Structures are given as structure tokens and as C-alpha cells.
Amino acid sequence: MEKENITIYDVAREAGVSMATVSRVVNGNSNVKQATKDKVLAVIDRLDYRPNAVARGLASKKTTTVGVIIPDVTDMFFSELARGVDDVASMYHYNIILANSDDSGTKELQVLENLLAKQVDGIIYMGNGLRDKLRDQFSHTNVPIVLAGGVDEKNQIPTVNIDYAAATKDAVTKLINNGHKQIAFISGSLQQAINQNYRLQGYKAALEEAGIAFDEALVFETQYTYNAGFELANELYGTDATAAFVGADELAAGILNGLTDRGVDVPNDFEIITSINTKLTQITRPQLTSISIPMYDMGAVAMRMLTKLMGKENIENGRLSLPYGIISRQTTR
Predict the structure, then answer these.
(1) What is the pLDDT of residue 30?
(2) What distance, in Å, lies between the first and last C-alpha atoms of the chain?
(3) What residues does 119 pair with on adjacent strands?
């Protein structure tokens, strides 16, 4: 008998019981005699039977499976969010299907379709933005969805994040208070709502409050990678900027090393504040000053919110903003 073809019928036949009895044993129903339970479990172990969650879900309307759409599994920010999601999912006996979208609009739609085809009970979406086509697909499914760490500028989908605009404003204000007037804003694509509508607005608000004119020449958009930051350091070196707010830690590490290789003394000649506080901020020398985001907690709270939605419970607030801080290290004075 091929292992991959083992079904509940095979287990019932080998154990000499009904399929209903096998189902009760698998689902932990106490209304089964211990001797019968032991016999069924022995057959399950011998045949290496794995219950089909989708097939069970067709009858129960519930597969106890959650899909997690993540733009990059190697990104420390999103992987820490996913750890929080997974821990809470385990507490509530949900299984996780982790799907990498490569931060691609086309692949996001494919990933969503695949997850829905697997009859997932809910979806956690992580990303730097919410594209219109994906938003449209979300609106046409009955599966509950929660955004973890991202933003929804239309406030249509339950979300757990921080106040990115306020956090950026606080970080830039710290640089202003250190005497800087020429402060670079460096982020990923400004097509992403988190950068254009939140971080950049926080940056502008800090400048306006301090009476400093906004200078378009000090706004840089690039990729969230070390190499992009290292290359950007050359361009930054040719400006009047004496400090920078950076939208990602890996990007900030590249800028730091690029400036250092050009002979720039950080923080005496140039100050840097990054925005996530992953482990990278403590690995660099000097260590990076950073906004501190509760990454694990955002994932955990998002998953708890999703369990309530999947259980048809009411949630008092579908847009949770968690506390953040700024950790001063060695790239600021």
C-alpha cells in the first residue's frame, strides 16, 4: 500500500472500526473507548496516516489553516513578524502556510489564489503596500484578512502596525535637535504607501515644525538592500546633507559602510537613524540608532485578531497601532 494513498478508509478497515470512529480519534473526541482509541492510533502510526485538512474542512467548514503572504522570507522585519504569527497560531491550534510573494503584484495575486484554493480559514498579509488589484481580490473573498506591519491608507482592512508618520517625525526631530538642517530622507519606492503617505509625511512635518524648508534634492528612493545603500553613499557624499533618516536597516548598513569608506566620520561628520531595529543595528560598527518597532508583537497581535475574526467574534478596534521607541546608539551624537 503506497503511503501517499493512505486514507481514513484504509485506517478504518485495518483497525476494524468505522470511519466515524477514526475521525473521532483524530479529532480528539473523548467519546471513544480507550482500547479502541489505542488500536486506531496504532494503525495510524503503522500506516503513517496524515489527515487531509482540506478534506476535513469540506465537512467542518474549517481547515484550521492560515495563509501568510510575506514579501521576502529573508527580510528580518517580516521574518520576525512571521515568528509572532506562528507562535500565536500554535497556541490556537492553527497551522501556517507561508507563501513568499517576492513583493511582486502578479505573484501576490497568484499566491492569494493558491491559498484560497487550499481552503485556508484566514490570511495574514505582510507587505510595504497594498496594490489596487490585490485590494480588489481581498474585497471579493469571505475569508478574513489582517495586515501585519503594513498600512492600509483606505482603512478598509484590519491592520496592526505602528504610527510610521509619528515615528519618522520623532526620528527626524532628534536629528534636528542635534543641530542638523540638511537631513536626507532615504527609503524604498515612493510608490509604496508606507513611504509616500506616512514616512515622508512625518519627515516633512518635522522639518515644518522646525522652520526648515523641504528640499526635494535630499529625498532618495532606492531598494531595501545593502548594496543599494553602499552605492547611494557616493551620491549622498556629494550633497549638503549632514544626517539621514533611512527606511530600512540593511539599507542603512550599506550607507554607513559606504560613507565610512569615503572617509566620513559617523557620527561626528554625519548622523544616521534607521527605522526598524533588527539585529543588524547592533552588528554594525558603529551601532545604528534606530526607531524600535515591536515586530514580534505586531505579528502576534495580528494573528490573535485573525483568530477572533475567524471565530466570528467582534473586535473593538480593527486598526491597532502599537507603541514604538527610539534607541540611541553610536550613529547619532
Answers:
(1) 74
(2) 70
(3) none
Q: Can you tell me which residue has the cell 559602510?
A: 257
- Cross-strand pairs, 246: 186
Mean local confidence (pLDDT), 4-27: 83
Q: CA–CA separation, 168 vs 22, rounded Å?
A: 56
What global pTM score does this model have? 0.82
pLDDT value at residue 314:
85
Do 213 and 243 form a contact (C-beta atoms < 8 A)?
no
- CA–CA distance, 151 with 137 (Å, rounded to integer): 17
By DSSP bridging, strand 243-246 and strand 219-221 are unpaired
Kindly state the greatest CA–CA separation across the chain: 82
Question: Pairing between strand 319-321 and 289-292?
Answer: unpaired
Q: What count of Cα atoms within 13 Å lies in the side-chain half-sphere of residue 216?
A: 1
Sorted by where each starts, the structural domains of the chain and their CATH numbers stand as 3-51 (1.10.260.40), 60-162+295-324 (3.40.50.2300), 164-292 (3.40.50.2300)
